[in-house]
């Protein structure tokens, strides 16, 4: 495996791990662990923020993560010359 290939996969794995960390914090942290503390904040007509993250916020975060991952991978692909035309 060439040095460029190794750097590409390192960058790819680093990106995946970062996205998984955000996913974990949003879904498990904000939706479960920090929900009691977040419930003291009310948004959108009085809904507790912890409830909102558990029900809607995590879904929005996941969709944003998917688009971020696709955008960032396109950048990495161009940087390492493996883009799809």
Automatic annotation (TrEMBL):
Where exactly are the transmembrane stretches of this chain? 12-37, 49-71
**What InterPro entries does this protein's entry cite?**
Na_symporter_ssu
Instruction: Tell me the keywords, alphabetical order.
Output: Membrane, Transmembrane, Transmembrane helix
Q: Name one Pfam family in it.
A: DUF4212
Give the Sodium symporter small subunit domain ranges. 6-83
Domain of life the protein comes from? Bacteria
Q: Name it.
A: Putative solute:sodium symporter small subunit
């Amino acid at each position: 495996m060439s040095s460029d290939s190794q750097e590409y996969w390192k960058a790819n794995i680093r990106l995946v791990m970062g996205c998984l960390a955000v996913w974990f914090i949003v879904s498990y942290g904000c939706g479960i662990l920090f929900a009691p503390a977040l419930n003291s904040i009310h948004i959108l007509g009085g809904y507790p923020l912890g409830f909102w993250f558990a029900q809607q916020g995590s879904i929005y975060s996941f969709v944003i993560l998917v688009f971020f991952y696709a955008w960032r991978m396109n950048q990495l692909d161009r940087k390492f010359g493996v883009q799809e035309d």
